[in-house]
Amino acid sequence: MRFVMAVARDKARTPKQTRGIESKEKIIKAAMVLFAEKGYHHTNAPEIAARAQVATGTFYSYFNNKKEVFIEIIKRIFKNIFEKALSIYEPKTHKNRADNYKEGGKLVHFMIHGILAEYKVNVSLLKEILAMVLLDKEIEKMRRKEEKKVIDLLVSYMQTYKEHLRVSDYEAASVLLLKIMEDMIHQIKFASTGVDEKRLLKEIEDMICRYLLLPQN
């Protein structure tokens, strides 16, 4: 009797040469377009390779399947929205409470507009990501992991401002702020509120500042 051992396929590798890096980037960009146009479930690896103008074998050199590309895209979006933007912001503290309130307001404005800028890039793709987070446990788990990095960064900012904050539970406050900002921007971009975008953004900034920061006087 003949026995065959099934070996899990895991050929993906990280490109080190310029040509390989460029090919992987082409694949990711092509996947973003196709996932936005056709949706995750109606897109396959050969289509992504064709759109990227690379061989299907090249696709499998860097990704084992389309889910890996999808996860890479989500990671990049988080970096663009939060980590990349927030990590270059240097919080400052002042002796004057009014100045600290203004500084906190700048950070809130910076965060909200960082999220909004990414949503403007490709609304269809972001809708697909939101849907897949609900449908796929692996993708949802990965999103939570990336989200935790953002929460940790927000907590570190709150610790810097701790003498000027109304809140004391920094982790809970960070989660709340993140969810409020995301939900409000979802409403702005995906639904019709009947209220001008600039007005809504100004109000959410004011609301967050009043929740987080001690009064100016």
Low-confidence stretches: 1-8
* Number of discrete domains: 2
Major sheet: none
What is the C-level CATH assignment of the largest domain? Mainly Alpha
Mean pLDDT: 83
Q: Roughly how many Å apart are the termini?
A: 85 Å
What fold name stands as the CATH topology of the largest domain?
Tetracycline Repressor, domain 2
Q: Decide which structural class fits the backbone.
A: mainly alpha
Tell me the layout of helices and strands.
Layout: H1 18-38, H2 45-52, H3 56-62, H4 66-87, H5 97-121, H6 123-135, H7 137-160, H8 170-190, H9 197-212
Helix pairs in contact: 1-2, 1-4, 1-6, 2-3, 4-5, 4-7, 5-8, 5-9, 6-7, 7-8, 8-9
Textual characterization of the structure:
The protein has 217 residues and is an all-alpha fold. The chain is built from nine helices and no strands. It starts with 17 loop residues before the first helix and ends in a 5-residue tail after the last helix. The N terminus is likely disordered.
Task: State the main characteristics.
disordered N terminus; Arc Repressor Mutant, subunit A; 2 domains; 0% strand; Tetracycline Repressor, domain 2; 217 residues; single chain; 9 helices; mainly alpha
Give a short overview.
The protein is an all-alpha fold and 217 residues long. The chain has helices spanning 18-38, 45-52, 56-62, 66-87, 97-121, 123-135, 137-160, 170-190, 197-212.
